[in-house]
Design brief:
The complex is a heterodimer of chains A (458) and B (303).
Chain A lengths: L1 H24 L27 E7 L10 H16 L3 E7 L2 H13 L6 E5 L3 H6 L7 H6 L1 H6 L9 E2 L2 E2 L7 E2 L2 E5 H6 L9 H13 L3 E4 L7 H25 L8 H15 L12 H9 L3 E6 L4 H7 L2 H5 L1 E4 L13 E5 L2 E5 L5 H13 L3 H9 L18 H10 L3 E3 L2 H4 L2 H15 L5 H15 L2
Helix pairs in contact in A: 2-15, 9-10, 10-19, 18-19
Chain B lengths: L1 H7 L7 H29 L2 E3 L5 E3 L3 H8 L1 H32 L7 H13 L2 H12 L5 H8 L16 H26 L3 H9 L4 H12 L1 H16 L3 H6 L11 H11 L3 H33 L1
Antiparallel strand pairs in B: 1-2
Helix pairs in contact in B: 2-14, 4-8, 4-11, 5-8, 8-11, 11-14, 13-14
Classes of the chains: A alpha/beta (458), B mainly alpha (303).
């Protein structure tokens, strides 16, 4: 009996040890596989023998079967194309969801284990470039003018830092689109979208009186209020000159009355009860649901929502959906056809790559941002950063076509949360949540953001 | 004689190298996963570091900023609220449940204990998501029950209203850990000798009075330890808040650990994030010290 007990104890201990070791060797859920040490032998002189290169890629696009994420679909096609043309390059793809992507990538950056290729947001460039973690694309763009000329000129703004380009734009966003149900607006007496701010407030009040939620908002991710509302509102009230002043640190402040007017207007929307009561606990995907089932009259989101709408929005609602921009504000100079937009993100490669592996990474960037990728993206209902030449627009889903035609009549305004410093953006976002719950006044918002801004420029 | 020599060997006192070698693995794990990161956090708190290879030494500047930081003190207050709720409700409810479970009238004691302990085993993230679904405006269980019971007037945005969000975020935290304290207290109560209960029954004290005047003082040491556990656990609380509200709306449910995470990964200020972590350590230690002093004073008065 003694020996049986002893061997049982030994077995339990071995089991514990093995499970600890086994758990340790399993990759944790959303960290990428560790960056493969460069296994590339430098045989630069021998170009006839192509070495096998494996690229570790971390993207935030949903690439599972049956996804509606247009970029996921298009990237999958790009990978197949590259496999055919360059069989020696293998791509190991790891996907992390958009809202968790920042944490995931910054953790990898902090521990110096960035993947070979990743998505980079415009506002992170300052950090990544200062820490020498992202590679420049200037040389490659110079050597391949065709690739560079394919991009929509405005798309390169968000991926440029101090004159150099660090990311290849894969999308062209407009963030402040208002998707509205014209049937509900007509019920409230507005057969056309309101043209001035006062008309807009009146319209929303009437819609609320009819029992609908005028605007469905899902700000749990914190960025919706900034990206989809404030970027355009701020341009209406303070215009481009304020933005340029902030970027150049030449005297513009977050406490300037022009920009505070935009915050006041945002708070006004909340005060008239235009939003749903749970706006801080649902995210941007959930905000669409209340629009799809006819409970709310409109929602603000970027054009990335379109690829979901053409699949998930019921036909009756989609047929009645029109797209508009925020009206003009009386007394302010911002034009009514400007919308916050840009590429916001780009595909980038790690600065630590060298030689053939670096070339392979940039090649992958080309495949995921070129004309063919752009066409694939349009097919799936999203909007690339390249001017897709020779694309038959009649192939487009009618709703996508509607947006595309409208977009060509708009001008791009800068997106604050792709250009400002990350701590300033965070202070703005937390401030917006406080504004939208009536905890603070616009002046207090201005003061808290300005304090963070002053810290960041020193 | 040989037999006599063998009898003289004292097998109850193991050799010291054996002692140390048995302790070594645990000590090693504890040092590498708890002590070393703490020391590294103190080191990083003296730098401005945005996560790359470049760090800028700033001395005590981060600490000066921390002292003036309103958000940090707001989060500290939130943590104190959560800690007090945990001490009062977790320990209070756990004490009542364990007193009930130890009474002779209850059948199926093991079953009850297992069910009450079950939430402790769940991951904090799971509990957070569960309660987020319960609190959900359109599809949540809570609103469903309230409207079916005719109490629709009580329905409000549970996690959206900055004035009450903290209360509703504390509920799952308190709920999850009750089971652990029930198990601790039950073990402690079982060790109270039966004679004491018998003699107090002779004196005429039963049930409720028994619990307050006999059970409670006899397990005072266990209660002291559980207060320390409750306070230290709630000072580090993170997953529930991250999953349910992310610290919002605004900063109404921000806790110190969440603030440290935000500074490090969203605002790219890892040096400052480490400073906040050191701040958490100091605040927790002072609270535990205060609670221990209060216990000492209470004990002296009792004796």
């Amino acid at each position: 009996m003694e020996t049986f007990k002893k061997s049982l104890c030994l077995a339990v201990v071995m089991l514990m040890v093995i499970s600890v070791v086994a758990c340790g060797s399993q990759p944790a859920e959303s960290t990428s596989s560790t960056v493969a040490a460069s296994s590339v032998t430098s045989s630069a002189s021998d170009s006839s023998k192509l070495e096998d290169i494996t690229l570790n890629v971390d993207f935030m696009f949903n690439m599972t079967e049956g996804t509606t994420d247009a970029k996921g679909i298009a990237v999958a096609k790009s990978i197949e194309r590259m496999k055919v043309d360059h069989p020696n390059i293998t791509v190991e793809m790891n996907t992390v969801s958009h809202d968790d992507y920042q944490t995931s990538l910054l953790t990898l950056a902090a521990s110096n284990s960035l993947p070979d290729v990743f998505n980079i947001k415009g506002s992170w460039l300052k950090n990544f470039v200062t820490n020498k973690q992202v590679g420049s694309l200037d040389e490659y763009l110079k050597n391949d003018p065709d690739w560079k000329s394919q991009f929509i000129p405005d798309a390169l703004n968000d991926v440029t830092y101090q004159g150099s380009i660090y990311g290849a734009p894969f999308q062209m966003l407009t963030c402040g689109n208002i998707f509205y149900n014209k049937a509900i607006f007509a019920e409230a007496g507005y057969s056309e979208f309101p043209k001035t701010w006062d008309e807009y407030i009146d319209c929303l009040t009437k819609i609320k009186g009819l029992g609908y939620t005028p605007i469905s908002m899902g700000n749990k991710g914190l960025w919706v209020a900034n990206s989809c509302y404030f970027g355009t509102l701020g341009d209406r009230t303070a215009t481009d000159s304020w933005f340029k002043g902030i970027m150049a640190n030449s005297g513009a402040k977050f406490t300037d009355p022009d920009i505070l007017l935009a915050v006041e207007k945002l708070q006004q929307l909340e005060k008239i009860g235009a939003f749903n009561t749970d706006m801080n606990s649902i995210d941007n995907a959930q905000q669409r649901k209340s629009y799809y089932n006819g409970k709310s009259a409109s929602f603000f989101e970027g054009n990335w929502a379109i690829s979901d709408m053409i699949v998930n929005c019921p036909k009756e609602v989609l047929d009645n959906t029109e797209i508009a921009l925020l009206p003009t504000i009386p007394g302010s100079k911002g034009a009514g056809d400007r919308v916050a937009g840009g590429s916001a993100w780009g595909n980038a490669y790690a600065a630590s790559l060298e030689g053939a592996k670096r070339d392979a990474a940039v090649l992958f960037l080309k495949y995921t941002t070129d004309n063919t990728y752009g066409a694939d993206l349009l097919d799936a209902g999203d909007f690339p950063g390249v001017k897709v030449a020779d694309y038959d627009l009649s192939k487009l889903n009618p709703f996508v076509n509607k947006y595309y035609n409208l977009r060509n009549t708009w001008t791009m305004a800068p997106q604050f949360d792709c250009q400002f410093d990350t701590s300033v953006i965070d202070a703005m976002n937390v401030g917006f949540q406080n504004i939208l719950t009536n905890q603070i006044t616009p002046k207090q918002w201005g003061e808290s953001v300005q304090a963070e801004y002053e810290k960041s420029v020193n | 004689m040989k037999g006599g020599d063998n009898l003289k060997k004292d097998f109850s006192k193991p050799k010291s190298w054996m002692l140390y070698s048995y302790l070594a693995p645990s000590v090693l794990l504890f040092v590498s996963f708890s002590i070393v990161p703490m020391a590294m956090a103190v080191y990083y708190s003296f730098f401005n570091w945005s996560g790359g290879p470049m760090k800028k030494f700033v001395g005590l500047n981060n600490y000066l900023l921390l002292i003036k930081d309103n958000t940090f003190w707001k989060s500290c207050l939130n943590n104190i609220f959560i800690a007090s709720s945990c001490v009062v409700f977790q320990l209070g409810i756990a004490f009542i449940i364990s007193a009930l479970l130890c009474s002779k009238l209850l059948k199926f004691k093991e079953f009850h204990r297992a069910i009450i302990f079950f939430p402790v085993v769940l991951s904090a993230v799971v509990v957070g998501f569960l309660f987020r679904m319960i609190y959900s405006s359109d599809n949540g269980l809570l609103n469903f029950f309230l409207s079916n019971l005719g109490l629709s007037s009580f329905i409000q945005p549970w996690l959206d209203n900055p004035k009450i969000a903290l209360i509703f975020v504390t509920v799952p935290i308190v709920w999850q850990w009750i089971g652990m304290y029930v198990v601790i207290y039950m073990t402690s109560i079982k060790s109270i000798p039966d004679e004491i209960y018998e003699s107090c029954a002779i004196d005429g004290a039963t049930g409720f009075r028994q619990a307050i005047y006999i059970t409670f003082p006899m397990i005072m040491d266990t209660i002291k330890v559980s207060v320390v556990l409750a306070i230290s656990g709630s000072m580090k609380i993170f997953e529930h808040i991250y999953v349910m509200t992310g610290g919002g709306p605004g900063t109404s449910t921000m806790v110190m650990a969440q603030y440290s995470y935000k500074s490090s990964f969203i605002m790219n200020k890892m040096g400052y994030g480490s400073t906040i972590a050191v701040g958490i350590l100091c605040v927790s230690l002072s609270f535990i010290l205060i609670s221990q002093l209060l216990f000492e004073r209470g004990k002296r008065r009792y004796e």
